[in-house]
Amino acid sequence: MPLASKNLPQSINLLDPVLEPEDIWTKAYNWIVNIGRVLLVFVEIIVLAVFYIRYTYDKVKNDLTEDINRKILSVLSLPENRRDERKFRSYLNLIDDIKLVQDNQKLNSDRLAIILDTLPQEFELQTISFVGNRVSLSLLSRDFDSISAYTADLKENPLIDENVKVSLSKEAEEEDFYSTDIEFTVSFKFITSEE
Amino acid sequence: MAKSSLSREKALKVIENSRQKAVGYLVFTLFVVSLLLIGAIRPTVLTVIDLLTEIEEKEATVEKLDNKINALKELRTEYNGGIRDSIADLSMVFPTRGDFSLFLANIEKIADSQGFGLVNISFEKYTEPSEGEINPVSPDVLVPWTVIINVRGDSANLIKLLKSIESMPMYPEIQNVSFSNKVDDQGMTTFTVVIKVYKIEDPEFYEMK
Fold first, then answer.
1. Rounded CA gap, A185 and A123, in Å?
2. C-alpha span between B36 and B45 (Å, rounded)
3. How far is CA A117 from the centre of its chain?
4. Which of B100, B89, B106 is nearest to B206 (CA)?
């Protein structure tokens, strides 16, 4: 402790020790020499370790960046590869679409067969439309009783949703319905396996 | 006696002084350690963590690129090994132009085979139905198109005709069937059948360069 010892009075009496002066600079000097140096060494070790780790990781990172750039520039950016990629992507989309269309194809001929089988003889079917699972029939009949009987049959059919809608055309409502054909439409929904 | 008491006081003062000094050192040391932790070690640790995250991302990118390159190689091999011909066939089934040559070529034969005569055929843009449930199918490449055919034949064979149409390779869907009220001398009826088929909008889809 050269700095501190210069100002201290000399004494060899152990029972009358010379007290250290309460000088802040001396305390700071003592702290730096005793503890600060240990901390400094500790920090230096950490800094060196981090420097080494960073150096290693930076090298790994640069290698990876080079690898990515090389793959993009020398392989994927080639016009031939870009064209093939676009082409194959389009074809894969087309194949997916075909599968989608195939899976969702509604075989309405089977439904038409069911409808024609259950259609009363006295009815005349004019048009049948399919929208998804919903079916709309445009029919002619000679009396109202058969219409209500047909509607009741449809409601009891297990393949058909019980919400069957019937609407008469305006002309049919106004005319004498015993002497002319009654034009009406029936719409209902087929129950699918998902429902 | 008085001298001894004085020495004792001095000794106690020395001990007290040392204790205060030790506490002061400890507090100051903790303060400096905290400063180092916050100011020096924390940023370096964060930098290392950032580096590790970047490396992880780059490794994932490299892996994706490798997968893409391998997939491209495999697809090219498959394409040259026979898929090219299948794709060429698909251009007949799902054409890019609205002529539907395969459909036209087959529909007349199908109608003939079921005892029907093809009276008329027309193509038009498909319009979504305004009422009822909307069809859940929404493909990316394929777009729906409408074919309207007028056929004349025995109504007893109608279902067979529709089934044959539905079994065509373009997965047609019967949308609407209209029945003519009139039955001619030969017992034949005319039907109008509206069918949904699919085509590809991009005219250069199969000839990508």
1. 12
2. 12
3. 45
4. B89
Task: Find the DSSP H helices in chain B.
Answer: 2-36, 42-78, 84-93, 101-113, 158-166
Tokens of B72: 């491209």
How sure is the predictor about B113, in pLDDT bands with cuts at 50, 70 and 90?
Answer: very high
CA distance A164 to B155: 26
Q: pLDDT tens, A139-162?
A: 888 888 888 888 888 888 888 888
Rg (CA), chain A: 48
Instruction: Give the mutation candidate from A40, A45, A108 for the B interface (greatest B CB count, under 10 A).
Output: A108
Interface predicted TM-score (ipTM) = 0.70
Q: Which residue is it, tokens 């580096």?
A: B51
Q: Which helix (H) or strand (E) holds A82?
A: helix A79-103
- Of B112, B97, B94, the C-alpha closest to B168 is B94
Token pair for A119? 């259609």
SS3 content of chain A, % helix, strand, coil (to 5): 60, 15, 25
Write down the domain spans for chain A: 22-105, 109-189
Our CA-based measurement puts residue A174 at a distance from the nearest CA of chain B, in whole angstroms, of 23
Give the tens place of pLDDT for each residue, B42-76. Answer: 887 888 889 899 999 999 999 999 998 898 888 88
Determine whether the interchain pair B25/A35 forms a contact, defined as Cβ–Cβ distance below 8 Å.
yes
Architecture of the A109-189 domain: 2-Layer Sandwich (3.30)
- Kindly determine whether residue A50 and residue B44, on different chains, have CB atoms separated by under 8 Å: yes
